[in-house]
Design brief:
two-stranded antiparallel sheet
């Protein structure tokens, strides 16, 4: 396969944005349960979310370069009942919007406590927004990967490992960026993000190698003839 550079940039940039958001929200969750220290809401989560939105927007922009008729891009969402591409077209803007909302909640400080769990953990608005956006992040990984995994006659792609690889590689790249961002901020979360970046990268390496081994052993059901 020789994909267009726009497709490479699209999947890479969006994956980084998804992974960075997941890293930020994971850090916040750990701080809520007092496993990790609390970070500055505006400078850490607000600015970090803005960086994630920038990567996502750049990926969205890259997607227009492999469209034959960009002015008709809106029509791509019309077949969401049957097309994974249409579902991706719907989920991606929703994820970008929710990431921006998550960042604005932190940056502006408008983050009211909604309720207290077991009189110990305070659940505020950003936690709810982050939980919804986490579901969107994994839905986006699924939609993007299934665009390729659902093509049954391309047996190299038609495997659950395609979905796993997209998720792990995107998460690994995002946690790696989160490590660099935390180090720049002088945050106590740098070792936490760095450790998970290594774990996710190694897991992605294992699943990618598994895909290559599987593909090398495939007995094709048909040929170009």
């Amino acid at each position: 396969m020789h994909p267009a550079f726009s497709v490479v940039f699209l999947t890479t940039l969006i994956g980084v944005g998804q992974g960075l958001f997941l890293a930020l929200y994971t850090g916040q969750l750990y701080s809520v349960v007092k496993v990790l220290p609390v970070q500055d809401s505006a400078n850490f989560y607000g600015v970090g979310s803005a960086i994630a939105v920038a990567f996502l927007a750049a990926g969205l922009l890259a997607s227009f370069f492999h469209l034959g008729r960009p002015e008709r891009a809106w029509r791509a969402a019309a077949r969401w009942r049957t097309s994974w591409l249409s579902r991706e077209v719907i989920v991606l803007p929703a994820f970008i919007g929710m990431t921006a909302i998550f960042g604005l909640i932190h940056y502006t400080g408008w983050n009211p406590v909604l309720f207290t769990f077991r009189e110990t953990f305070e659940v505020d608005l950003s936690l709810i927004a982050g939980a919804l956006n986490t579901a969107l992040a994994f839905a986006l990984f699924l939609c993007t990967a299934m665009i390729y995994a659902c093509i049954k006659f391309l047996q190299e792609w038609a495997t659950p490992l395609t979905v796993v690889n997209y998720t792990l590689l995107g998460s690994a790249s995002g946690f790696t960026l989160a490590t660099a961002f935390a180090a720049y901020q002088g945050s106590d979360l740098t070792p936490f993000y760095g450790g998970w970046a290594i774990i996710l990268t190694l897991a992605a390496f294992v699943t990618r190698i598994s895909s290559l081994i599987r593909n090398a052993r495939i007995k094709h059901k048909s040929t170009l003839r």
